[in-house]
Design a protein that fits this description.
Length: 442
């Protein structure tokens, strides 16, 4: 294909997307076709997907996206490391064969982008939809670049690791709203049909006024990739990003944010007034990063309502992932889809994969012009997690307003594999750990 024909096709796709959105807003399509039918009239309506972050979750998100829409293709991939991109591409091609749709994975060599600038190059490569599944540290910048470039986005959680990142995402979400661009968040429980129905009843007053919330995400440790002699410190940390706060936000951000998001949802996405808590590192190997292995945080509202949250990553311990809401008229167990008390109820409807549903709704929104923008609550729920980390690391009680205006910024001046990360090991190979009462709020 010549460069001229490539540019012509890109213009056609852009025209299709703009025209479809305009027609959806007007409620009509040419010839009286429904939006769903009109979106599949000819070959120019293919939605071109780009994947940023080719790890296990990124590969899974790409599969969900490819299944979500009949006329979409994966055409570009980006990762910091070539071996991860190639492995993901092999897996996705196999999956496309199992789907009997090998044409859905059409990633040419010149659309495989590797390195720290890979995400930017992918966004500029002519894609329509960007899947952001890279380490959380990089998401605020990639999300901004995607929305600036007029792309629709699926963005995994958490969306940032520090308050400057949150402030950036809030501004980007506002820009996306003004441009009628979609941002669907990887806070996947908001796309679980049983959880949705349970939360609808909670918000409609089935358990009365919420008096207390208990959130738990107690799980086993994550796998760690051993250090290889030829690796720089930066490469080692990137390949083990969940173990470093500057890349992941700590596990209360990267993992337990799901639980915090459901608490935020129950409180109508209004932030708490302040938080306090404690956490530490009892069993995690000090040579394997600087994150804690347990957190306990209490978030308090102005009317006295507390949200008690607990998360842990330790082997051999009691595990539990649950959301318990206690109100004046009853009790909701959200993940079991049960309400007890004056208005007893249990969900009995369909249970499709929430990972599929979030992508189905994203592509349906693109086709119809009925925009979805999860950016605001994605940022605020992530901020809950960052606030929790701040109070645990410092040992201080902090208000929401103080935390969201924090100046602690984990971004680097230079992103290369020989750059020095924000945290490095000592002579014995141990990483410095935040110490409550000593570590300062910034």
């Amino acid at each position: 294909m010549t460069r001229h024909s490539e540019q012509h096709n890109v213009r056609n796709r852009r025209d299709f997307l703009k025209t479809t959105s305009a027609m959806a807003a007007a409620g009509t399509l040419t010839g009286g076709l429904s939006i769903a039918r009109g979106a599949h009239v000819d070959g120019d309506d293919v939605l071109r997907i780009g994947l940023v972050g080719c790890g296990g979750r990124g590969t899974g998100a790409a599969v969900n996206a490819l299944k979500a829409d009949k006329n979409c293709k994966l055409v570009a991939m980006a990762d910091a490391f070539d071996d991860r991109l190639k492995r993901s591409l092999r897996l996705l091609k196999k999956q496309a064969l199992r789907m009997e749709a090998p044409e859905k994975v059409a990633v040419d060599a010149d659309h495989c982008f590797v390195g720290f600038d890979a995400g930017r190059k992918l966004i500029e490569s002519g894609v329509d939809v960007v899947l952001l599944v890279e380490p959380p540290h990089f998401r605020p910048a990639h999300l901004k670049a995607a929305i600036d470039a007029g792309k629709h986005v699926f963005c995994e959680k958490p969306v940032a690791v520090d308050a400057p990142g949150i402030r950036s995402v809030l501004a980007t979400a506002k820009e996306a709203k003004e441009k009628n661009l979609n941002i669907v968040a990887g806070l996947c429980w908001r796309y679980d049909l049983g959880v949705r129905e349970t939360m609808k009843r909670v918000l409609d007053g089935a358990i009365g006024q919420i008096k207390c919330i208990q959130e738990t995400y107690m799980a086993s440790p994550l796998s760690h990739r051993p250090r290889r002699p030829e690796q720089t410190e930066m490469e080692y940390q990137l390949r083990n990003w969940q173990f470093f706060a500057w890349l992941s936000g700590d596990h209360n951000c990267e993992q337990a944010v799901h639980s915090l998001d459901k608490a935020a949802w129950a409180m109508r996405d209004e932030p708490p007034q302040r938080a306090w808590g404690f956490g530490g590192r009892l069993r995690r190997n000090p040579k394997e990063g600087d994150v804690y292995d347990h957190h306990a945080v209490v978030y308090e509202y102005g009317d006295g309502t507390p949200v008690h949250t607990y998360c842990r990553q330790m082997s051999g311990c009691y595990n539990d992932v649950s959301d318990i809401f206690i109100g004046t008229k009853g009790r909701a167990n959200v993940l079991k889809h049960v309400i007890e008390g004056e208005n007893p109820w249990k969900y009995s409807g369909p249970k499709p994969s929430m990972y599929d549903v979030e992508h189905q709704e994203l592509f349906a929104a693109i086709r119809s012009g009925n925009t979805i923008n999860n950016g605001d609550y994605l940022a605020k729920s992530t901020m809950w997690a960052i606030l929790g980390r701040m109070v645990d690391y410092t040992g201080q009680a902090l208000t929401w307003d103080k935390a969201i205006n924090s100046q602690q910024d984990f971004s680097l001046e230079r992103y290369t594999l020989d750059a020095i990360p924000p945290v490095v090991p000592d002579a014995d190979g141990n990483y410095p750990i935040p110490m409550p009462g000593i570590t300062k709020f910034i």
